[in-house]
Amino acid sequence: MQDNADLLALVRTIPDFPKPGIQFRDITTLIHNGWGLRTAIDRMATASAPYQPTLVAGIEARGFIFGAGIAHQLGLGFVPVRKSKKLPGAVIGIDYELEYGVDRLEIHNDVLGPDDRVLIIDDLIATGGTATATVNLIRMAGAKVSAACFLVDLPDLGGTDRLRAQEVPVETLLVFEGH
């Protein structure tokens, strides 16, 4: 694994946000930096290429930032995974549990097929709830998940383990222990 200390230095930690005891990992400082954004996308694309995806799916909203850049780097199409009622036309969706309620993710019903190998991209994985729902949505659409790649992993929250339990290879660039 590549040493990503240079990118790690661009992520700001904000203590006690959004509530006491949480160490919020703010990537806006990284994406504001032209070199940091380009380098993160380049490294995520390099880490993802061996999984031979045919499409990239970015999870709303910051997964769009990295996913579109990675799709461009790999010469692939991009599938936006959106929150409920954000896409026009016919969609398929999946409901998933949040800490305090339920949310829904959707994709167009005609963008994935059995020959597609989809690379899932998001900025951060914590508990893995949204990423796991995305895996299930892609599989529900009849496609395969080739891998998932995240800029930031919070391993203490178990999200990467959840994905690996679903037989999804996971790549991450930056790891922050703790919550």
From TrEMBL:
One of its GO terms (molecular function) is adenine phosphoribosyltransferase activity. Pfam families: Pribosyltran (PF00156). The keyword Ion transport does not apply. The keyword Cytoplasm applies. It is found in: Cytoplasm. Its EC number is 2.4.2.7. Pathway: Purine metabolism; AMP biosynthesis via salvage pathway; AMP from adenine: step 1/1. GO terms for biological process: adenine salvage; AMP salvage; purine ribonucleoside salvage. One of its GO terms (cellular component) is cytoplasm. It catalyses: AMP + diphosphate = 5-phospho-alpha-D-ribose 1-diphosphate + adenine. Residues 49-153 form the Phosphoribosyltransferase domain. It is an enzyme of class 2 (transferase). Keywords: Cytoplasm, Glycosyltransferase, Purine salvage, Transferase. NCBIfam families: apt, PRK02304.1-3, PRK02304.1-5. Catalyzes a salvage reaction resulting in the formation of AMP, that is energically less costly than de novo synthesis. Homodimer. PANTHER family: ADENINE PHOSPHORIBOSYLTRANSFERASE (PTHR11776), PHOSPHORIBOSYLTRANSFERASE DOMAIN-CONTAINING PROTEIN (PTHR11776:SF7). Belongs to the purine/pyrimidine phosphoribosyltransferase family. This is Adenine phosphoribosyltransferase. It comes from Tardibacter chloracetimidivorans. The gene is apt.
